[in-house]
Amino acid sequence: MQNPPVFTPSATSAFSSSQDHTAPVQGASIEVHALQRQFGSFQALRQIDFTLPAGRVLALLGPSGCGKSTLLKLLAGLDRPSSGSIAFAGRVVADAATFVAPQQRKLGMVFQDYALWPHMSVGGNVGFALRMQGVRGHALQERVDRVLQQVGLADMASRSPSALSGGQQQRVALARAIVAQPSVLLFDEPLSNLDRDLRESLCGEMRQLLRDMGTTAVYVTHDHEEACLIADEVAVMFQGEIAQRCSPQQLWGAPATVQVARFLKLGALLPAWSDGHTIGLAQQHDVQVLASLPAQHINHTGTVQAGVQRMMGHLLVPDDAVTLKPAPTAEEVRAGVLSAQVVEQHYTSGRYKTRLQLCGADQAHDVHAWTRERLPVREGHVALQLDMAQLRWFASQTT
Ligand SMILES: Nc1ncnc2c1ncn2[C@@H]1O[C@H](COP(=O)(O)OP(=O)(O)OP(=O)(O)O)[C@@H](O)[C@H]1O
């Protein structure tokens, strides 16, 4: 199975390290139980359950409309659940009988569009929450300066937000969110307006800052790499439900469903069947055998049941699991060596992403491989060698 994509946090992090901080903030645990949110007849969140221990970072990852922002708003107190409960550090902040206002939840929030007040200086923006708490004078100045230093913006307190780059504005938004030492930080796609390089470095820096502060955080994103870099746990959501919640390593190593594997773009998902001994690639869920693979060498999610029953399902073939060899001989084909035709090649980052159509199969069985060299398209055949250890079987139904 391929490794999770990993950003390397910038070696020249602009965020200051933990020794510059005052005592680390103790984050609050988050307990969410049977949470639902309905808009008219539409169920935006169905039965969300999780516990996030204090100081951990949870990324909510999923396609547009799956309910990430709805869940974040419920945590923030910007919306009320239809049913279920939310507790921070064991204290219920929302259920059928309770609703604690956002300003009383000890939260910090960072939004995609920064949401800075344009009429206030950087320092004014960052110090606003403290002034609301009655902090004034030297104490206010000292805390604002310290947090600006933490996010790499020392000496920028008097600037106007409009005189800053997008990345700098998001640093101000982060400083504003952490200055009052919240127990829980909520992030709503905070980096999606920034270019890729900046996203990577800022994401690495934010991860370090969150670790140093010990704040519990929930981070909404639709970017797989960002989720894996920032979070201890990733919850993948589809249609108002959490399909899988686990560490980034587990997510990439053992996706729980075909849908998760497809969303993470882990590789080709080929219609297949298994009788427990053999996994056969099936033409359009027919039982015709395009290839037979030994089930015991293949990772599986769901049942691989030896015996008479034939399970229909999917076989995940990651791009890295496919190695191309010269055209197989007639004898090799008879011995079960898979052959395919190159149907497309795209050059990217020094190599070709090569789409292959298995011989005798339709497009549903196309797989991809990486090659260093250009290959003839729609001419002749190549042999495919599959690394069994990287394949994964997903059972879907029994026939
Ligand atoms: N106030 C509302 N009234 C009716 N439907 C809503 C409301 N808020 C959200 N929804 C619906 O709930 C679903 C989930 O929306 P949500 O904003 O949580 O998705 P999301 O995963 O954050 O998507 P995106 O990544 O595009 O921001 C969507 O179908 C959306 O249209």
From TrEMBL:
Pfam families named among the record's database cross-references: ABC_tran (PF00005)
Every ABC transporter domain range: 30-264
InterPro entries found in the cross-reference section: AAA+_ATPase, ABC_SmlMolc_Importer, ABC_transporter-like_ATP-bd, ABC_transporter-like_CS, ABC_transpr_FbpC, P-loop_NTPase
Xref: SMART domains: AAA
GO cellular component, one term: membrane
Cross-referenced SUPFAM superfamilies: P-loop containing nucleoside triphosphate hydrolases (SSF52540)
Comp. bias regions, Low complexity: 8-18
UniProt keywords, alphabetically: ATP-binding, Cell membrane, Ion transport, Iron, Iron transport, Membrane, Nucleotide-binding, Transport
Gene Ontology biological process terms in this record: quaternary ammonium group transport
Lineage top rank: taxon: Bacteria
Residue ranges that the Swiss-Prot or TrEMBL entry lists as coiled coil: none
Stretches for region Disordered: 1-20
GO MF annotations in UniProt: ABC-type ferric iron transporter activity; ATP binding; ATP hydrolysis activity
Listed name of the protein: ABC transporter ATP-binding protein
Species name: Lampropedia puyangensis
